[in-house]
Design a protein that fits this description.
Layout (H helix, E strand, L loop, with lengths): L1 H17 L16 H20 L3 H14 L4 H13 L3 H14 L4 H13 L3 H14 L4 H13 L3 H15 L3 H13 L3 H14 L4 H13 L3 H14 L4 H13 L3 H12 L6 H8 L2 H7 L2 H16 L4 H13 L3 H14 L4 H13 L3 H14 L4 H13 L3 H14 L4 H17 L3 H14 L4 H14 L3 H14 L4 H13 L3 H11 L3 H4 L2 H13 L3 H13 L7 H7 L5
Length: 577
C-alpha cells in the first residue's frame, strides 16, 4: 500500500504542476460524483495507458495507469500492468509492490502470480520466487514449466540440493530432456559430484548415441576436473564414430602437446586441418596466435606455414585461407610470397579492405612506389572513405617525387581522419617533408609541429624538422632543441649526430660541431655518406684546417655528393655557403 500511495502522490503532483492557474483555483474545481462519468473517465485513462504501453512510452503509461487508480483502486489488472511497466523501466522496488497488490487482489490469476515471481526475481529474492512457483505447481500439477522455474529459482537461491530434487521430479514427468539434464549436471558439478554429473550426461548419450554434442559435453566435464584419461577416451570414442571429427582431433592434439608428444600433436592437428568440413573460421582462429608466437620462436614459422597450407588445400576457393597465409609470410618478411597470397585472396573476394591494406603495406616495404601508386589509386576509388588508401597514395607519390600529388592525397587523408594518433602523426610528418620539398616552409613547419603534438618523441620527425630549419638558417635555437632531443631518444644514430653537428655549425659553434660530426664518423655508414663528409669539410674549413677540409670535400664528391658549390669549394679551397 505504501508504494501505491507514493506513486499516486507523484501523479497528483504532475497533474497539479500542469495547471496554469493560481494554487487556490483547486478549491473551485468540480468534484465528479456521477458513477457513470467516473467509470467513463477511468476507462479512457485505461485505454490511453494501453496505447502508450504498446507504443513503448512506458513512463507515460505509468502516469496514466496511476491516474486511473485515483478513480478506481479496485482493478487488479492495473496493478499487474504497473508491475510489468516498472520492471521495464528498471524500478524493481515499485514493481514488487504492485505485483504483490495484484496477486493479493486476485490470487487465482496465474499471470498475476507469475508476475509476482518475476518481481521477486528482479529484487534478487529467489527463494520467494521459488515459493510462488511451488504454489503454482500445486495448483497446476500438469504444468511442467512451473516445475522447471521452481527448480531454476532454487538453484539461483544457492539451494542446489533442493533444485536437484525438483529437477528429478520433473524428469519423472518428461523423461530424459536435454535442458533438464544440463541443469542437473551443472548443479552436481557445483556440488563437486563429478561422477554423478557425468552419469547425467551419459543418459543423453544412451538416449541418442549418434548425437556427438553430448560426447563433447562429457569430455568438457572430465577436462574441467583434470580427468584427462577419461576425456581422451571420450575423444577416441568420437573418432571411432567419425574418424575425421575435427573437434575430437584438436582435443587429442591439445593433450599431446601438453604431454610434449610432438609427433602425436602434429598428426592429430594436421588431420583436423585437412578436413574441409571443419570451419575455416575456427581454423583461422586456431592458427592466428602463431603470428605472435613466430616472433618469439622461429620453430613456429614452419608449423604456421604448414597449417596455412593445409587450410588452403582444404578451402581453395575461400579468400580467408590466402589472406591468412599472406599474413604468415608477411610476418617473417617473405614479401613476395605474402604479395602472391594477398593478390589471390583479392581475386576471390575484393570486398575486404584489410587485405588491400596489407598489400599496400607490402608494396611500401618492398619500396615499389609505382606498384604502390597503382594499387592505392584502385583502393581510393573502391574505398573512398578509407583513410589508409589516401595515406599510402601519398607515400607512393612522395617516393616518386610527385610532391603536389603527395600533398593532395595526404590532405584528403586528414579530411577523412583516423582514430589513431600514430597514423595522423605519420600523415603530418610526411606532409612536412612534402611541403619542404615544394618550398612551402610555413606549411612544412606547421605540419611538423602538429606531428610532434601527436607524437612528441618521434626521433625521425625531430631530426627532419630540425635539419630543414638549419638548412634555411631559421629558428636555430628551436632546431638545436629538437635535434638534441632526437639524440636523447636514439643516442647511437650517426644521422642524428650529423644533423646536430650541422645545426651547431650554423650557430657558429664550430668546435662543438666538430665533436659531434667526428662522433658520427666513428660509424662505417657515416664514412660512406657524402653529405656527412661534406659537412665535415665545411666545419674543418671554418676551424682553419683548409687542407683537411679540401680532403673531405673531395671524398664527398667521390662518394657522389652533388650539392651546389662543392666543385667550387674544392677548386677555390674555400667554404661557399
Amino acid at each position: 500500500m505504501r508504494v501505491f500511495l507514493t506513486v499516486i502522490g507523484v501523479a497528483g503532483i504532475l497533474i497539479t504542476g500542469a495547471c496554469s492557474g493560481p494554487k487556490n483555483s483547486l478549491r473551485h474545481q468540480t468534484v465528479i460524483k456521477d458513477p457513470a462519468v467516473l467509470e467513463q473517465r477511468a476507462d479512457s485513462l485505461f485505454f490511453a495507458a494501453q496505447r502508450s504501453k504498446m507504443l513503448g512510452d512506458f513512463r507515460t503509461a505509468i502516469t496514466q495507469y496511476s491516474d486511473y487508480l485515483r478513480l478506481n483502486k479496485n482493478n487488479p489488472t492495473v496493478y499487474y500492468e504497473l508491475a510489468r511497466l516498472f520492471m521495464e523501466v528498471q524500478n524493481p522496488g515499485y514493481a514488487l509492490g504492485f505485483a504483490r497488490r495484484a496477486a493479493t487482489m486476485d490470487p487465482d490469476n496465474h499471470w498475476f502470480q507469475i508476475t509476482l515471481a518475476d518481481a521477486f526475481a528482479v529484487n534478487q529474492q529467489f527463494d520467494s520466487a521459488a515459493t510462488v512457483f511451488d504454489k503454482l505447481t500445486r495448483r497446476y500439477p500438469e504444468n511442467e514449466d512451473y516445475l522447471y522455474n521452481k527448480a531454476m529459482f532454487l538453484a539461483k537461491a544457492n539451494r542446489p540440493a533442493a533444485a536437484l530434487a525438483v529437477f528429478a521430479q520433473l524428469e519423472e514427468k518428461t523423461g530424459v530432456v536435454e535442458e533438464v539434464i544440463y541443469q542437473k549436471q551443472r548443479l552436481l558439478l557445483k556440488m563437486s559430484q563429478v561422477d554423478a554429473a557425468a552419469a547425467e550426461i551419459r543418459k543423453l548419450i544412451d538416449n541418442n548415441p549418434q548425437e556427438l554434442r553430448y560426447y563433447f559435453l562429457l569430455a568438457e566435464v572430465y577436462d574441467a576436473n583434470d580427468r584427462v584419461p577419461e576425456a581422451k577416451a571420450i575423444f577416441q570414442d568420437v573418432l571411432r564414430k567419425d574418424p575425421d571429427n575435427a573437434r575430437a582431433l584438436l582435443g587429442l592434439a591439445t593433450y599431446a602437446r601438453k604431454s610434449n608428444d610432438k609427433t602425436a600433436y602434429w598428426a592429430f592437428l594436421t588431420r583436423a586441418f585437412a578436413n574441409p568440413t571443419y570451419s575455416i573460421d575456427e581454423k583461422v582462429a586456431y592458427v592466428y596466435p602463431y603470428l605472435q608466437m613466430m616472433q618469439l620462436d622461429s620453430t613456429k614459422v614452419e608449423e604456421g606455414l604448414e597449417l596455412t597450407s593445409l587450410i588452403v588445400k582444404a578451402h581453395p576457393k575461400d579468400a580467408k585461407a590466402y589472406a591468412l597465409r599472406g599474413d604468415m609470410y608477411s610476418q617473417v618478411d617473405m614479401l613476395d610470397s605474402a604479395q602472391q597470397n594477398y593478390t589471390k585472396a583479392l581475386s576471390l573476394d575484393s570486398s575486404r579492405f584489410s587485405v588491400w591494406y596489407q598489400l599496400m603495406w607490402i608494396y611500401s616495404r618492398k619500396e615499389d612506389p609505382n606498384a604502390l601508386q597503382a594499387l592505392s589509386n584502385t583502393v581510393t576509388e573502391k574505398f573512398p572513405q578509407e583513410f589508409m588508401g589516401y595515406y599510402f597514395k601519398g607515400v607512393a607519390s612522395f617516393l616518386l617525387q610527385q610532391y603536389p600529388a603527395t600533398i593532395n592525397a595526404l590532405n584528403k587523408a586528414l579530411e577523412i581522419g583516423s582514430g589513431e594518433k600514430k597514423f595522423m602523426a605519420d600523415v603530418q610528418s610526411l606532409l612536412g617533408d612534402a611541403y619542404h620539398a615544394t618550398g612551402q616552409h610555413q606549411q612544412s613547419d606547421s605540419s611538423y609541429e602538429r606531428a610532434l603534438l601527436l607524437r612528441p618523441d618521434d626521433a625521425l620527425v625531430l631530426n627532419n624538422y630540425s635539419y630543414y630549419l638549419s638548412l634555411r638558417g631559421e629558428n636555430l635555437n628551436r632546431a638545436a632543441e629538437l635535434s638534441k632531443r632526437s639524440l636523447e631518444l636514439e643516442p647511437d644514430s650517426p644521422t642524428y649526430m650529423d644533423t646536430y653537428a650541422w645545426i651547431l655549425f650554423r650557430q657558429d659553434k664550430f668546435e662543438d660541431a666538430r665533436h659531434w660530426i667526428e662522433k658520427a664518423l666513428e660509424f662505417p655508414e657515416a664514412q660512406q655518406n657524402p653529405n656527412v663528409l661534406e659537412h665535415y669539410g665545411d666545419i674543418l674549413f671554418n676551424l682553419k684546417d683548409v687542407t683537411k677540409a679540401v680532403e673531405y670535400w673531395q671524398k664527398a664528391k667521390d662518394k657522389g655528393a652533388t650539392s651546389v658549390g662543392l666543385v667550387r669549394k674544392i677548386a677555390e679551397k674555400k667554404y661557399i655557403q
